[in-house]
Amino acid sequence: MKIVSRVLRHAWLSSVLVAAACGGSGFGAKRATSPAAYGPPGSPGSYGGDSGAVAAQEPAERPGLGTQWGEQVSAPISFSQFVRASSSPWGEAILHYNDAEGVSAHASYVGAHPSPLEIYAGDGSIGVALVDDYGNTLPGFTAGGRALIVGNDGARYRIVVRNGTTARFEIVASVDGLDVIDGKQADPNRRGYIVEPHGQLVIDGFRTSDADVAAFRFGKVADSYAAQTSGDRNVGVIGLAVFAERGAVWSPAELGRRDSADPFPNRGYSTPPR
Questions:
Q1: Pseudo-torsion of CA 190, 127, 245, 256, nearest 10°?
Q2: Cys bridge to 251: 57, 125, 262, 272, which one at CB 3.0-4.6 A?
Q3: 170, 243 contact by CB (below 8 A)
């Protein structure tokens, strides 16, 4: 089945170092104003009671990090038609993140050492990493087929997708189980961003309009956007579904097959007729 998606073309495709273009990153910046469907988490309610009543014990807070609804960041987009080659993703990338204590404990357990980490989707043609305000790739490690990234409480991060092919791809991304464009429960069938041939896509936050996003910031699980909207069940994971465009994809794997093609695959001697 062919799917025609009206997808978003991100304005920043050429460089990871876009801190200046993305606006300030201070905590004092005004939060984004957004449509109801993309709105920031509501403030927790309060309740009263008799002064002699016994207060219920709050459950212990979950350890580790989630992603908060950060300050407003300028991130203009345009729209372009994109026809998927298949309803199934061409590739997927999953990154788990946590604070340094949690990741270091896991790394020690499996005998690994965190270092700048980029993971790859599909045949390795699409690279994915988390970067800080200065464009530095965040450290992490892979173990048991899982990638774990180290984050710092309060720090801003971006998702960077690098395309090593001559084809366009559509990237549907989620953070903590939420779609980065509409803030709802993530679904790979939703619209995504386009990464151009040999280009880079930088996803700066949860989209609030055609011009702005709410920056991704690491924070306590209880303060995460997911925990304050749909729940914290999927906090700590970032996912990307990568869709190829209809038509041939000139990936390194395909080029390698052509380069190694054998003009005489069945070498041997003639056999007598039956």
A1: -150
A2: 125
A3: yes
Question: In the structure encoding, which two tokens stand for residue 145, read together?
Answer: 């087929």
What 36-43 contacts at long range (C-beta under 8 Å, 24+ apart), as own/partner pairs, is: 37/182, 37/183, 37/184, 38/182, 38/183, 38/206, 38/207, 38/208, 38/209, 39/183, 40/69, 40/214, 40/225, 41/69, 41/225, 41/227, 41/228, 41/229, 42/228
Backbone angles phi, psi at 72, to 5 degrees: -70, 135
Query: Other C-beta atoms within 10 Å of 14: how many?
Result: 11
Model confidence at 40, pLDDT cuts 50, 70, 90, reads low
**Is the whole-model pTM more than 0.70?**
no
The single-letter DSSP state of residue 57 is: P
Note the pLDDT tens digit of each residue in 72-122.
Answer: 888 888 888 898 888 888 888 888 888 888 787 777 777 777 788 899 998
CB 144 within 8 A of CB 107: no
Give the highest mean pLDDT range of 14-18, 36-40, 49-53, 107-111.
107-111
Q: What does the alpha-carbon distance between residue 167 and residue 165 come to, in Å, rounded to a whole number?
A: 5
% of the chain with per-residue pLDDT over 70: 74
Tell me phi and psi for residue 204, to 5 degrees. -95, -20
Q: How far apart are CA 251 and CA 4, in angstroms?
A: 22
Q: Which band of pLDDT confidence, cut at 50, 70 and 90, is reported for residue 164?
A: very high
Comparing C-alpha atoms, which of 80, 82, 85, 81 is closest to residue 246?
85
- Cα gap 127→67, rounded to integer Å: 22
Report d(CA 197, CA 200) in Å as an integer: 9
